[in-house]
Amino acid sequence: MDKEFWFRRWQKNEIGFHKTEPHHYLQRFFAALQTQSGATCFVPLCGKSPDLVWLREQGLKVIGIELSHIALDDFLRENCLAGKWTTQAGMPCCCTEGYTLFCGDFFALTGTALAGVRTVYDRGSLVALPPEMRTRYAAHLAALLPSGSRMLLVSYEYPQSETAGPPFSVSQQEIERLFGDEFQVELLVKEDVLWSHQGMSDRGVTQLTEFALLLVRR
Length: 218
Ligand SMILES: C[S@@+](CC[C@H](N)C(=O)[O-])C[C@H]1O[C@@H](n2cnc3c(N)ncnc32)[C@H](O)[C@@H]1O
Fold this sequence. Notes:
The chain is an alpha/beta fold. It has helices at 3-11, 24-29, 50-57, 69-78, 131-144, 172-179, 198-202; strands at 40-43, 61-66, 84-88, 91-96, 99-103, 119-123, 150-157, 183-192, 209-217.
């Protein structure tokens, strides 16, 4: 999955992954992140998700990173935020009203950009990446986070042979394999969700499970 793929998706507004409401698992399991007011939550591969706004409403500062400038410009405009673009940690960045939004490649993000961050929310990141990139994603995230960091991770599982990703099928077992050496992994919920994902049914998917995991950095 190269960068051009995602640039094209945003240019053509082919963003079926974008939800207009905050994710219900984020709202339901937010307490598991054990955040203090004023702490910072990192949202990798953030798109223009309303989850960013919801996290701010809980009193957290938010750091996002997203490849597409269109996504971040849309986010700022749709949320009536006036942001000024500068360069931080070697990357274009817009800081406004408690949001720090990096426009660039997650894999180029350095520890400087995330200094002090111990909370992560991932919905739609891991499932956006093909297998070999998922391995790099897990290793890079682990390298960026100190011991005790907590991450809420939302993923999908379906028979990968029924359609090509993204979203890719990323099972609980795979996540345990990817992150298990560096994180404790706990299942919070797992549900059949095919009934509410017409797009995946239309693609021939016959079984779709969504689940949330809590990961705690060792
Ligand atoms: C499936 S979408 C999920 C977006 C968001 N998390 C949400 O829930 O709506 C994946 C996003 O990751 C972005 N992306 C893909 N690869 C990336 C990378 N290497 N670095 C930063 N962003 C990336 C894409 O442009 C896309 O907006």
